[in-house]
Amino acid sequence: MESANLNIIRTVLKVDPSVDEEKCVLCSFSETKASAISNHRTTIESFGLDYAQQEAVISCIATRECGHRNAINLVWGPPGTGKTKTVASLLYLLFKMKCRTLTCAPTNIAVFGIIKRVMQLLQDGLEYETYGLGDIVLFGNGKRMGIDDHEDLFDVFLDNRVAALGSSLSPDHGWKNHILSMVSFLEDPEEQYREYLGKEKEYKEHNTDDVEVEEKARITSINDQGLDKNRKSKLRKTFVHQTLKDNEKISNDEKNSQMRSVGNANKVNSAVSIQNEGEARNKQDGSWTFEEFVINKFKRIQEQLTFCLTSLYTYLPTSFLPLEVVKDMIRVLEMLQTLGTLFRTVATFKRSKEILYGVEIVTRNNGRHFRNMYATKTESIKILKSLSERISLPNITDIRSFCLKGACLIFCTASSSSKLYTEGMIPLEMVVIDEAAQLKECESIIPLQLPGIRHAILIGDEKQLPAMVQSKISEKADFGRSLFERLVIIGHKKHLLNVQYRMHPAISLFPNREFYENKIMDGPNVKEAMYEKRFLKGNIFGSYSFINISSGKEEYDNKHSTRNMAEVYVIAEIVANLYKESVASRQKVSVGCISPYKAQVFAIQQKLGQKYSTDVNSYFSVNVRSVDGFQGCEEDVVIISTVRGNGSGLVGFLSSRQRANVALTRARFCLWILGNATTLVNSGSIWKQLVIDSKARGCFFDVHEDKSLTQAILSATIEVGQIETLLSMDSPLFETAKWKVLFSEDFSKSLARIKDAMIREEVISLLVKLSSGWRMSGKHNIFYNNGGNSSELLEIYSVKYLKLIWTVDILLENSTYYQVLKIWDIIPGYQIPKLAKDIDILFDVYTVNMMNRCKCKRVERNLTLPMTWLIDGSDDSIDKNLARQLAPMSFRKMQEFKSQVVSDSNNVKLKEEIEDSYQMKIRCPCGSSLQTETMIQCEDKRCRTWQHVSCVIIPEKPIEGGAPPNPPETFYCELCRLSRADPFWEMIENPLYPVKLAFTGVPADGRNIEQRIEKTFQLTTAAKQDYDLQAWCMLLNDKVQFRMQWPQHADLQVNGIPVHCIDRTGSQLLGANGRDYGAIITQCSRDGINKILLGGLDARVFCLGVRLVKRRTFQQILNMIPKEPDGEIFEDALARVRRCVGGRTATENADSDPDLEAVVTDFVPVNLRCPLSGSRIKVAGRFKPCVHMGCFDLEVFLEMNQRSRKWQCPICLKNYSLEDVVIDPYFNRITSQLLTCGEKVAEVEIKPDGSWGTKADGDVGHWYLPDGSLIESLDI
Fold first, then answer.
1. How far apart, in Å, do the first and last CA atoms of the chain sit?
2. Which among 1035, 782, 1006, 801 is positioned nearest to 908, based on CA atoms?
3. What pLDDT is attached to residue 207?
């Protein structure tokens, strides 16, 4: 920057800590300070600042009052001390003092935070609507800033201001033109009406293009409402938005910023002109009457004039527009609003023209109003004429520079401030840098060099996050040091804001002591009883807790960032419980999840999914961000995931004190820290002190002290495949176990082979229950084994399709026998005979005493507890040796131990399998499992469920004689129909199988029959964590089998919470694409028993169900399409093509499908463009049952059905399902061979024998045999 202002830089270089920077040798600082207080006492007191905040503001104001020196003030704002409030108060005072000030921050978010606070103060203090906002400018790149998401900053954003003033200052169609138009209209409306009639006549004779009508539609209308303050703002913003859209259409290379603004302002006004000329066409049924013309013409001019005048007093700096002029502007706009109302009243009376011209016509009720109207009109004309002369503006050639020159407060990022410099710019006086500790020194110097700056105020906290420096070399060279930190290091005085108003005292205690030497006091608000909030039950969820997760292990993602899935699952469980409590107690809660590692942040976000809102203004919100992303933010509840879990105590950059400070100071009411206490203590970092402090204060808890969190740890362990850590008595799962549990090697291996996380979790849960003494009622050794001892001891519990095999065994410890649980294996049922044979090897060598001890039981209060025996007797020595040798054995070692024992496994059969083979699987929506005379079976080979014909086959009309309805050719049960209706959802489990809705009331007309169903279903936490819960409904006799459908006026409730289930009006039969969709009810569900209710007004028969589902990806659906040989063989496809192209015999045609294309010709042209996208087919797909040749692009078809779920052939429009989709091997060879050709080759000609040739631009290219071989000669 040439001619840079180096005054402040020199001041920085000359800072002497032994000299009081606040004292000036030429003036008394105390006098200056006293003067500042007296001049602004009332304003300062109105801010509600505490003593430290007031001192900081007054000190900065007093520094500005001293004109003898350049000065730098430091304001030290620790977390929650009202730093932003203090800065906003200071800027408001500088605004009132007309001190030209630049305010900077490192990021746009930080800039928004300050300017929004300033705007709140200003809007409360503005006396004349928005007059005064022209002295404030927000500068920057609108798209990068996301300004469209901040409507409250619309009036101060520079680009919007340039657009509005460009239109309002236009010489041809600006404010002056509209004032003259309004004066002319009010003085002689009859003359303008005659002109209107002339244009009407001309229009009828020479009809114009529709372009004018389109242009006319761009002009804003505010209906017939009065133009109050909010309506003026809406009108102004609408005009400006339109101008900004036009700006984007003009090339930046052709016109500079100013020409773009003015040019497009003329565009808007040219549209106004076009509308002016086309007024005669505003009424389609003939010409307007005089009264209608007056109302509509006045309304249009009023809107345009309102836009211009409000833009002038909103956007122009106050130095160019005196207050008296603004008062008249506001007054005349109010008078015009009154006139508009009176004009509409006058139009209802006869002799309205005389009334408009002031002829006194007195009626019983309205004479006074008519006289007021004439007086108001006369006064309005007078003020408008006065304004046209009194508004005196300079010749503005560059609106952008004009706005910046006249602004008192300018806001931008530090890096953007370099763009403010222009040759001969009006000097700035002061610069305020917020979050100064996050700016590198070189970044802070950018705004300090702008012309005229005499004073700088740096606000920040060097104890929080520093500037980001990627290079380690640069970091070691202190390249990331901020100017704020530099000045603090050399001893520059700083004003400490010493009262925090954010954190509960239990939260602020540790950071205050560790980072701020107990200099920060707790505000009175955080000491009140109402600040003691408990969002969850239990001491572990108090205001401040450290939750030890010792089982969590750190791992690395593919980007070498660290994550800890145990902590992820615990956070997900805590958030889910917070949501339930928030809904139950109707308490608004905002939750923040913080982690220093990006991989952990991503893992938490993935686990939480889209279940919770991120909008802090919503009733329940969850935001997951890194520590860096959370600086400056605060939430009601904050959960910190420290991630690191290793034996060496390595914590990486987690040891940063500044990051720790930020993370620990974001919470208002509750702060819960998750971590591995051993790792953190061994790290020797600030986190060691935190763990020690939490233990000393009684705030240290183990994750297993809470049952739901223990379950979350279990789920995480299973998810990441660390099951081996659970299979030991040292595992936290068995800390409170009544039984000791031993696991065989085979069980560990079998459990590791199970891929389904839900089954693994259910197995572990069953083991925990068994170790607690719980036993399933009844007998569970469900097989017999001739000659074997295993039938006496072996227990078999079912887990889905698997069987958990276990026995009671004997363990010798300290001269005492103990009963223990021995877990042998988890296997399919058909493997049990072999396992029983292997276990008999062990049992056959047990003594009678050993067997009897295994069989003994001690039952107390429905719990089976282990028994113990002291060694006493001669035979105990044998048992003792057996117990020692056999307890640790695997099956392989057992066979070596007693290889002479042979069992005949052919005699072993499962009773369960025998019984199942004679049973009929009945699952009907009526709920009955009884077999009746008329049953129908599902066609799906994997299902084969039987149902009652009378329940699921419902005729459209009653059948005479009560005969059963005719079954369809193919029948699928509701679950199989559902899986085909929406294959993008994978069904995991059915908590509620299909149930039929019951009719509860029949109206007289027989329509809109009321039906209703209320059911309960059970759900576990593990199920909700991994899957979505979906409620679905289906019409039983739907002609389109594979689709969901809800009844008319559907009312769905889950646990008393209404659920939106249809995107259509209640009376409409179906939603978009002729389909309804399932309702995700995960957030409404809870652990344990859930209640679901569905009601509707519909005469048709529906069924309701609930299922756990998992979303399939597009690629997974694509992989479900069979490959060419598996879907359709080439020979069948070729035969179909030959039939379609070459024709068939009369006999063949007699039995043909009416959709089959049968022609006799030399060749047939076939278009290879997809009927859905219009692009050439890449992979040719079709429905296998279709008999036509037409194909579609497979990926395009699947992408469209990902949204529509309408599995319909686009050629013949028949409905099928995904399992019917195949790749056409004949046409796919053609499209594959054409991949190297351009898009213009989109048609082939096919001969009756199946040979084909390409065709482009009317010419036939090469010919190929059906298998794709090139034909050398054309004589085929």
1. 80
2. 782
3. 58
Beta bridge partners of 136: 409
Comparing CA positions, the residue from 124, 57, 70 lying closest to residue 97 is 57
What distance in Å separates the CA atoms of residue 179 and residue 328, rounded to the nearest whole number?
A: 13
* CA pair distance 705, 735, nearest whole angstrom: 11
Portion of the chain with pLDDT greater than 90, in percent: 31
Distance CA(88)–CA(95), nearest Å, equals 10
Cβ(975)–Cβ(987) below 8 Å? yes
pLDDT of residue 395: 84
* DSSP-assigned beta bridge partners for residue 667: 635
Give Cβ neighbours of residue 69 (< 8 Å, ≥ 6 apart). 11, 24, 26
| 214 CB neighbour count, 10 Å cutoff | 11
Range scoring the smallest mean pLDDT among 19-23, 415-419, 985-989? 19-23
Q: Which of 593-597, 927-931, 1022-1026 has the lowest mean pLDDT?
A: 1022-1026
Q: Note the pLDDT of residue 246.
A: 52
Tokens of 372: 């007021």
Q: Per-residue pLDDT for 1109 more than 60?
A: yes
Phi-psi region of 1232 (alpha: psi -120 to 50; beta: other; left: phi over 0): alpha
- DSSP letter assigned to residue 646: -
What domains does the chain contain, in order, with CATH numbers? 6-158+406-499 (3.40.50.300), 532-719 (3.40.50.300), 721-780+789-870 (3.30.2310.20), 968-1112 (2.60.120.780), 1124-1144+1159-1264 (3.30.40.10)
**For the chain, the helix, strand and coil percentages under 3-state DSSP, each to the nearest 5:** 45, 20, 35
Mean pLDDT over 103-107 rounds to 93
The share of the chain scoring above pLDDT 70, in percent, equals 79
Q: How far is the C-alpha of 400 from the C-alpha of 195, rounded, in Å?
A: 40
Return the pLDDT at 223: 40
Which residues does 367 contact at the CB level (< 8 Å), separation at least 6? 360, 361
pLDDT surpasses 70 at 268: no
- Using DSSP's 3-state secondary structure scheme, residue 870 falls into strand
